[in-house]
Amino acid sequence: MSNYKKAYIAGGCFWGMEDLFRNQKGIIDTEVGYQGGENSNPTYRNHPGHAEGIELTYDPTITSFKEILDYFFRIHNPTTIDRQGNDIGSSYRSTIFIQNEEELKTAKEIIKIVNESGKWEAPVVTTLEPFDTFWPAEADHQDYLVRNPNGYTCHSERFGSFLQ
């Protein structure tokens, strides 16, 4: 496990993102939680400024940060500020939590590719925020759509890869 890496992203309700990412090649584990907000130990009922995000544990010999971001931009709308589907507010913002210079460079490269593709009708507004603490969400939010297969999600694969 020491060779695995972690990526931190947010793109709307964490249930839908987790459900789609769990089946991607190279993704070893997913966990939903809160990031980028004002309080410590946030909860679903009290997470001011936090985004609903996911922690992805991945095997870099099978997938890359670049491929993760490619998929991220295909399964949520990165052109809406603080909104995904019916979910509105800063909790639902599109964000990549950057851990180092390499991730920052890759994120900027992918955003440029996505914008130049013209697949989305508006430019990407995804924020690049420095990584801080990832706070896992309560147990009833983990693997939510596995336990509730007809539960709410606003995520779906909208396009093929931007990297082709």
From TrEMBL:
<dbReference type="InterPro" id="IPR036509">
    <property type="entry name" value="Met_Sox_Rdtase_MsrA_sf"/>
</dbReference>
<dbReference type="Pfam" id="PF01625">
    <property type="entry name" value="PMSR"/>
</dbReference>
<comment type="similarity">
    <text>Belongs to the MsrA Met sulfoxide reductase family.</text>
</comment>
<dbReference type="InterPro" id="IPR002569">
    <property type="entry name" value="Met_Sox_Rdtase_MsrA_dom"/>
</dbReference>
<feature type="domain" description="Peptide methionine sulphoxide reductase MsrA">
    <location>
        <begin position="6"/>
        <end position="154"/>
    </location>
</feature>
<comment type="function">
    <text>Has an important function as a repair enzyme for proteins that have been inactivated by oxidation. Catalyzes the reversible oxidation-reduction of methionine sulfoxide in proteins to methionine.</text>
</comment>
<protein>
    <recommendedName>
        <fullName>Peptide methionine sulfoxide reductase MsrA</fullName>
        <ecNumber>1.8.4.11</ecNumber>
    </recommendedName>
</protein>
<feature type="active site">
    <location>
        <position position="13"/>
    </location>
</feature>
<keyword id="KW-0560">Oxidoreductase</keyword>
<dbReference type="GO" id="GO:0033744">
    <property type="term" value="F:L-methionine:thioredoxin-disulfide S-oxidoreductase activity"/>
</dbReference>
<dbReference type="GO" id="GO:0008113">
    <property type="term" value="F:peptide-methionine (S)-S-oxide reductase activity"/>
</dbReference>
